[in-house]
Structures are given as C-alpha cells and as structure tokens.
Design a protein that fits this description.
single chain, mainly beta, globular
Length: 153
C-alpha cells in the first residue's frame, strides 16, 4: 500500500518584527547569531493574534546555509497564549544576501527559506495546533520575517 502525497492548506501568515542581529561567536566553520523578535502579528483563516515581544531566532551558519531556531509566543485574539518553536533553513548567494541586507524585497524564488513550526498550548480552541504538522515558506521583507504557514493534511 502506498501513502498519498501530502496536501497543504494555508493556515495563517506570521509577520515577526525583528531587531538587529547580534553576533555571538565564530569558529573556523560556523557563525552563531541571535536576532530578537520584538513583536508582530499573525493573520489568516485559522488563527489571528499578535506576537509577544521577547522571543528570538538563533542561527548557526555553515557554508552559506543558516540553520535557524526561532522561539516566541503568540497571543491569539481570544487571549490564549501559544508557544512557537520554528526551525528551518536559509540559504542564499552572497549577491542575494547583500540585496536583502540593503533593504531590497528580493523574490523568494531567489533564495531558500523554509521552516517547520511546532506549536504548544493548553487552550482548548487552539489545541489543534499542537496536534498537527506544519510547514512554512518564509521571506525577509520590510524589517520583518514573514512566514506563510501551511497545515499538512
């Protein structure tokens, strides 16, 4: 018996406001940085809310590929808190990175920025978030990291 191909359904978009990144350290093969998450919003057909300031994104870059681990809290419109752990990868050419850092809205087809968010909450209306798998397509735009989150059916 073969398994069906996964189906994706758009759930919501995360728009995380970010501060300047902090360089933590560097070894011969990698660099560790931290980018604070200072606020933001979540909007879509399955979830709406705001991002609570105080989270952040830790990145380890090796060979021009950054392994990301962002952690922050969303407060849903009904007041419930939802913990978000969003892991992923960012890879781009030096030219594309320079364009992004200069503030240009580079099309996401020119770089790889994918995530796999995991959610935790004990709020009954949002428990479904902790019981499903999600994938995210991300981009840097206008001082935000925007992640379009899809539910894997």
């Amino acid at each position: 018996m073969t398994l069906p191909d996964p189906q994706l359904a758009f759930a919501f978009e995360i728009r995380a406001d970010i501060g300047p990144f902090l360089r933590i350290g560097r070894s011969a093969d990698e660099e560790l940085t931290f980018t604070p998450v200072t606020g933001g919003s979540v909007a879509g057909p399955l979830l709406n809310g705001t991002i609570v300031a105080g989270g952040g994104d830790w990145a380890v870059e090796r060979s021009r590929t950054a392994q990301l681990e962002a952690r922050y809290v969303v407060q849903a419109d009904d007041g419930a808190y939802i913990d978000v752990l969003n892991r992923g990868y960012y890879r781009a050419s030096k030219e594309v990175i320079d364009r992004v850092e200069a503030g240009e809205n580079v099309p996401e087809t020119e770089y790889y920025f994918r995530t796999a968010p995991v959610f935790q909450t004990d709020a009954a209306p949002h428990r479904w978030l902790a019981e499903h798998q999600f994938v995210g397509l991300a981009r840097d735009e206008d001082g935000q990291v925007r992640v379009r989150v899809f539910l894997v059916k």
